[in-house]
Amino acid sequence: EVQLVESGGGLVQAGGSLRLSCAASGFTFDDYAIGWFRQAPGKEREGVSCISSRDGSTYYADSVKGRFTISSDNAKNTVYLQMNSLKPEDTAVYYCAAKFGRPPDGDSWWFEVEYDYWGQGTQVTVSS
After folding, report:
1. How far apart are the first and last CA of the chain?
2. Whether 95 contacts 36, CB under 8 Å
3. What are residue 59's DSSP bridge partners?
4. What is the pLDDT of residues 68-78, one digit of tens each?
5. Angstrom distance (rounded) from CA 77 to CA 84
6. For residues 125 and 64, what is the distance between their CA atoms, to the nearest angstrom?
7. pLDDT for 97-122, tens place per residue?
8. Contact 122, 7 (CB under 8 A)
9. DSSP characters for the chain?
């Protein structure tokens, strides 16, 4: 059974940092992609970042470029999202998701329908 477990969320002041973790189990860390998504109150869920296991390609939403960094540790089956210079508008529940098959690309990595498994989410709150 594929499982994704997010951790690392919390309350932080604007300008601060958090590192989210997505621990994956139940599948071979081989040809896959892990995406981070977030949903703020009253808003639709949006793609934040994605990393491909095939070639390490990474993708970011414009709103987080230069502030967030996605990385993976295959030995630990874990993907991280380092979030720096946090803003109140980054407040949301953050989810990680796994997709298999067609590797992500710049035009569609944020398509939720392409992700097969989702974690339960972790709350990130940024105070002003």
Report:
1. 40
2. yes
3. 50
4. 999 999 889 89
5. 23
6. 16
7. 999 988 888 889 999 999 999 999 99
8. yes
9. --EEEEE--EEEETT--EEEEEEEESS-SSSEEEEEEEE-TTS--EEEEEEETTT--EEE-TTTTTTEEEEEEGGGTEEEEEE-S--GGG-EEEEEEEEESSPP-TTTTT-GGG--EE---EEEEEE-
